[in-house]
Amino acid sequence: MITLDSKDVLSRFALLAGLDGGTEYLPLCEDAAAEIERGERETCGSEALGPLTAAAAALAFYRWALAQAGGTAGSFSAGNVKVSSGTGNIRPARLLWREAKAAASPYLADSGFLFRRERA
Fold first, then answer.
1. Residue 78 DSSP one-character state
2. Tens digit of pLDDT for each residue in 39-77?
3. The model's pTM
4. Element (H or E) spanning 49, and its range?
5. DSSP letters of 71-84?
6. Cα angle 87-104-41, degrees, rounded to a multiple of 5
7. Does residue 13 lie in a domain region?
8. 118 in any annotated domain
9. Within a domain: residue 49?
């Protein structure tokens, strides 16, 4: 198993979010890195570092996008002009997270599979 460097996750997150990479986002990146590490396969070697770091950064970016959308004011309209809260980057952030997770999937335990019996 490997340990992700939170500052590397922060650096990639800042690129995705278009931010300067200030340390105020470090807790968000640490949480995402810890979640990815919990799902890591025990047989991971150093080749997993890049994909897992990218996945943690994408997860942090997705969560940041959700927080940004939830923290903005509602919408208003004046005549034919309508202004609404900024939820435009949630879908792309989710897609980015899914792509990064898929790229890192060889190094992650399969935790998304559910097998159950359906009753008629």
1. E
2. 999 998 999 999 999 999 999 999 999 998 876 555 555
3. 0.79
4. helix 49-71
5. HS---EEETTEEE-
6. 125
7. yes
8. no
9. yes
